[in-house]
Specification:
With about 160 residues, the chain is of the alpha/beta class. The chain has seven helices and four strands, in the order αβααβαββααα. The longest helix is centred in the N-terminal third of the chain and has 18 residues. Keywords: Cytoplasm, Endonuclease, Hydrolase, Metal-binding, Nuclease, Ribosome biogenesis, rRNA processing, Zinc.
Amino acid sequence: MTSLFRQYRYQILDFLFSEVVIIQDKRWYKLIPDLKELIYRIYTLQPFAEQTTLCFANDQTIRKLNCQFRNKNKPTNVLTFEHPDPQSYGGDIILALETIQKESRRARKPMRHHLTHLIFHGLLHLKGYDHLKCNETKTMEMKESYLLGKIRIPNPWKNSSFGSI
């Protein structure tokens, strides 16, 4: 890796972690030690729109948000909120540590793989993809699988115990 490329890469990493990423629960660093590098790899495949925030939270935080905005008083793995201004792109992606950890264990998949999948999932929502109808679900799953394959993460929909997100 050339020193110019390395310098550019670190500038992007610094920008992402100062402007885009919120680590609300510090346990994320222990569970995903290369979190910064992972976010950079995701960014290179699916650049974040302006005003996009990734929040690495926990079940307590996401349960409150899920209750407030979806009337579901339970945690979920990821919540995505589009930017309120229709002229702007981006939004917030909030990830729940304990739920993602449990789902990964149950599916016997590395937590890093499941987390990456959920970040791509949230980013695709912010780009207008959805999974409310069968044809939308297939399109979104294919796009997720393609992006994951680019960083050598197996297709989560083959032999999956996750079901649709």
